[in-house]
Amino acid sequence: METVLDRAYSVMAAEPERDELRLRFYERLADAELFMILEEEAQGDRIDPRVIEHDGMSLVLVFDTEDRLAEFTGEITPYIAVSGRVLVTMLAQVDLGMAVNLEVAPSSILLPHDIMVWLADMLSETPDEVEARPVEFTPPRAIPEPVLQGLDAKLVSAAGLADEVWLTAVTYEGGGRGHLLAFIGAEPAVHRALAKAAHEALRFCGVEAAEIDVAFFDATEGAAIAVRRVGMRFELPDPVAPEPYQPMAPGMDPDKPPRLK
Known about the structure:
It is a single chain. The protein has 261 residues and is an alpha+beta fold. It folds into 2 domains: 4-124 and 249-260, Uncharacterised protein PF11572, DUF3234 (Trna Endonuclease, Chain: A, domain 1, 3-Layer(aba) Sandwich); 134-230, Beta Polymerase, domain 2 (2-Layer Sandwich). The protein has helices at 4-14, 19-31, 66-73, 84-92, 113-124, 145-154, 191-203, 222-230; strands at 33-37, 46-47, 51-54, 57-63, 79-83, 97-100, 109-111, 134-138, 164-172, 177-184, 213-217, 232-234, 259-260. Helix 7 (191-203) links the parallel strand 10 and strand 11 (213-217). The longest helix has 13 residues, at 19-31. The relative contact order is 0.16.
């Protein structure tokens, strides 16, 4: 079965000269849940990844599905599920790279340690917070297609966190102009995460100087009503029904990453 990572890799490989396609692949890798082979079962929050050597690189073995990991090993093997962004941050701090889907998928690729360092730097960036008062909203103008595609893909993560997302052109008090991504009906607790997701989408779209402000409005306030009149709406997927609570597996909580032995 083709995965999101397979599709991003095939598009990148078809046009290797296009930087924005390579960036999009790395973004999908960071957003993925990855399964990493261990030498032994995790001991509390400490893990001992299996490491291979290739052309002077030390690489951990990760797969984007459990079936692919099983196909590679051919036997019962200890492993851990870990988010791509957490794993990249961990590997950037030590001299390790990543072997992704080695020999078992179209997206098989070896990524050296310097890629982990670069990607961790990209993922660590946070948007600046400023105060500005919008005075007029108008239809968005000449937004590059890679920007729209990047936002559309990233906003899948907003399902259930915001009721609506709109893109408009905006004029601020004082005469400043730009574009604004308006989240409507999002709880304050998720504002920072949504703003960071939008910021990442712009950083990985491959368009220089791609800047869009982010704002949060209540559904009934005047700004939200004005945005709806002129803006372009992003369709959010239906939120996934919550599953019964289970303790989170080591590695999936970015605030409590596992520790490499």
